[in-house]
Design goal:
With 458 residues, the protein is of the alpha+beta class. It contains 5 helices and 12 strands.
Length: 458
């Protein structure tokens, strides 16, 4: 009977309306009805004024689950922090790998350019060596020609000596004959023919003398000119040889410099490749650690979900024991006037089983609908958890949870077993338990399972 009354009062399945009282006078029956109504009113007053007795085993189980929930939340936070730290380390090592790759690419380009320069200089050196070989050949030919000209000059000098001897004889003969007058030559001649022959001989000697002198001068001039030309040619070839030799030495020096650059770049590439390998190993290690931390966080999230599900199940058991009827309604008011910072659903690789509503400290937290308070305060304070919660049963199948409530300046204003109406202030926003800022955690629990509160809020 009382369940029917409380169900009607708190928005549950309405029972069939009670019949209207009789207007007749049946005195005995009427007195019994009045007495029965008085007993009902008295029982209702007793229920409203006396708190419901809490089962010690349920309280202990709730405390244990709450402690596990808090430890899991902290472990998840640590795992997320570790995962973030490993991710940052992986990014840092990836940046080192990228930097090493860029440096290796730059060094490879510089090495390729130096190698191209060295190859081009190798070709220039080969050309210079060919030029030196040609010049050496020309110099050898010129030196051979000089030798030949020197031999010719020596032979010509020898011939010139002979001519000079002949010329001296001619000069002596001419001198002797010049002292004989033509008359004496005629008188000394055996005949006129002999005179003519002697005269012709003198004329021939004179001609030969002139010819010898001319030949001697021409031979001397030709030999001197040839020697001068050959000497000049030899000087030019020697200068060209020295120039090409110097050029080849310069090219060889440049080629050696570029080859040294190629070797230095190759050594730098090897060094950078070592740095890249170490960074890649560290990156892979950090990535593995990140994955392990994420897997650990996911595992902890699953355990947390199981714990929260068990907590919700126990809260549902308390609601079932409240004696209320089945709840089929909706929330009448929002529990907190604030901003929703985290909704129901997947979050951080896990699952968020309610709404987080941010609001300033001490903002009133109100009952979303009429119901009976089944849990208040810190049932797991002995385990080090400072979270304060209020759970209200709105029916045997439906309850709501309000978490992170203040417990110092403005503690909860309701007690276990108290009946509240929609909009009644039950507590105030705080920062108890595992939280980073003032907000209220609001859950709706249906048949022992947390469901999205959005479907029940106005």
């Amino acid at each position: 009977m009382s369940s029917l009354l409380t169900a009607t009062r708190f928005g549950c399945n309405d029972p069939r309306p009670m019949g209207a009282p009789r207007s007749g006078r049946g005195g005995g029956v009427r007195r019994w009805r009045v007495l029965f109504a008085a007993l009902v009113v008295l029982s209702l007053l007793v229920v409203q004024t006396m708190p419901a007795a809490a089962d010690p085993e349920d309280e202990q189980r709730l405390a244990q689950l709450a402690r596990e929930k808090q430890e899991l939340e902290r472990a998840i936070q640590v795992s997320r922090q570790n995962a973030e730290r490993y991710r940052q380390e992986a990014n840092r090592f990836q940046a080192a790998v990228d930097s090493a790759n860029a440096r290796i690419a730059q060094l490879s380009q510089e090495q390729a350019r130096a190698q191209n320069e060295a190859d081009a200089l190798r070709i220039d050196i080969a050309i210079a060596e060919e030029q030196l070989a040609l010049v050496a050949f020309q110099l050898n030919e010129t030196q051979a020609l000089i030798g030949s000209l020197k031999a010719q000059a020596a032979e010509q000098t020898k011939q010139l000596g002979k001519r000079e001897e002949i010329y001296a004889i001619h000069l002596r003969t001419t001198y002797v004959q010049s002292r004989v007058s033509p008359l004496e030559m005629l008188l000394s001649s055996r005949s006129l023919a002999d005179f003519v022959n002697r005269v012709q001989a003198l004329i021939l000697i004179d001609r030969q003398d002139k010819q010898i002198v001319g030949e001697m001068k021409a031979l001397q001039t030709s030999t001197a000119k040839k020697q001068d030309d050959v000497a000049q040619k030899e000087t030019e070839i020697a200068g060209l040889q020295a120039q090409i030799t110097s050029q080849r030495a310069s090219l060889a020096k440049k080629k050696a410099d570029y080859e040294e650059i190629v070797r230095a770049k190759a050594a730098s590439i090897v060094s950078q490749d070592g740095l890249r390998y170490d960074a890649a190993v560290n990156r892979n290690s950090a990535v593995g650690a990140t994955q392990q931390a994420n897997a650990e966080a996911a595992s902890l999230n699953r355990r947390l979900e199981q714990t929260e599900a068990a907590y919700a199940a126990l809260a549902a058991q308390l609601a079932a024991r409240s004696g209320l009827a089945v709840f089929t309604g909706r929330m009448v008011v929002w529990p907190v006037a604030g901003v929703v910072t985290s909704r129901f659903g997947a979050r951080w690789g896990g699952f968020h089983n309610g709404l987080d509503i941010a609001a300033p400290m001490y903002t009133p937290v109100k009952a979303g609908a009429a119901g009976q308070v089944v849990t208040v305060g810190k049932p797991y304070l002995a385990y080090g958890d400072t979270a304060t919660v209020v759970i209200i049963a709105h029916g045997s199948n439906f309850s709501t949870l309000y978490g992170h409530l203040d417990d110092r300046t403005r503690p909860p204003v309701v007690r276990v077993g108290q009946f509240v109406t929609a909009g009644t202030t039950i507590a105030y926003v705080g920062m108890t338990g595992w939280t980073t800022g003032p907000h209220a955690h609001f859950m709706t629990i249906v048949n022992g399972r947390a469901v999205d509160p959005a479907g029940y809020l106005p």
